[in-house]
Protein 1
Amino acid sequence: MFCALSLNAARAATGGEPAAVIQVDVASCLAATAADDVDKAATACAAVIDNEKTAKGDLIKALIARAAFYARHDQVDRAIADDSRALLLDPALADILNARGGLWLKKGDKPKAVQDFGAALKIDPNHEKAKANHKAMARELERIGAQMAVAGKPSFNCRRAARAVEKAICGNRELADLDREIFASNARVIREARNPAEAKNLQREQDEFIARRNAGYGRAGYDLKKAMQERLQRLNGVDGY
């Protein structure tokens, strides 16, 4: 009798039946994102993600699903935000680290991309996609580093520059880069020549360009930058090689 009275008192205090436990439906979010249903995905996933009573496992699933949905629709920042939140809940998600690395790459943030690919490999050293991505990005960063090391430096040693035109090139980063590109492109076309005679003719063209450049610099109307750009375009062709 005492128990019955206590239950009745509890019901009276709350104004009715005891509140039922709310079940959060993650299935609708997963189905909508898998079907790429733009109309339903946003609302169905928000109902799960924004509900503080959602179980941790379901929340992670919904965040991952919505991130993939956002990524497919080129909403990169939103996708990164959802993947980042999922990783805060479970930092050991190698697939999501690799996915977020791809998103950083889309944004042009190569260092963060490499960091995520590397983190994925620490968790799963055999993760094939992360392994391939990390290797490719490491090479790319190495190439960028090499380019930065020679940026603003011409093909010749500025300490030995004697001509006025050479000193002008050494004193201007843009001209220095042009000179280095011309040198590299000329070396390429000679290397790809069909025969020694053609290679010899190509080198003669380069020598003649240098001679015209040296003689023309300083004269009225001579545009060094334009002359160098035209030479580079000739070497690389209309399509820029």
Note: DSSP finds twelve helices and no strands in the chain.
Protein 2
Amino acid sequence: MTADDLRETSAALAGRALELPELGQAGTVAAYVSVGSEPGTRALLDALHARGVRVLLPALLPDNDLDWGPYAGEGSLARVQHGGRMALFEPSGERLGPDAVTTADAVLLPGLAVDARGMRLGRGGGSYDRVLARLERAGAHPALVVLLYDSEVVGHVPEEPHDRPVHAVVTPSGVRRFPREP
């Protein structure tokens, strides 16, 4: 994708996501800053912040768990290199602890793909598996939303016993919802 394609995709993705009632009614949204070829999240983060939504962003811990910090605009981000992996943009201010995610009304999850059942394929580091397990242990039930390109919504992804389905996937062309488990 060209830089213009990425900007257009990011704007379309933000527009679709902002139409979700789950985000429109949220007081707190846990999100992430896209990197590399991931669908762009910056426009969405800025729009949520401008609405007065408390946006929490992850900071990767040495054991691949996630700590959380508040987003206060682009100036509140720091580029952090984690060993031989890609650099991430993380909140530069106060750290709220791994349990801060349990206060979120909606959690935006990165992924490589989502299938027709709502199962998400991550990058394999387990960071968001830990987030989902933490939410479950806390009895928290935020909306779980994955942001992807249209081509990343597929028929089937591999699944492990600890995997949990998401509630919706947002792509530049639309939203697909999945039934919530009782």
Note: The two ends are 40 Å apart (CA to CA).
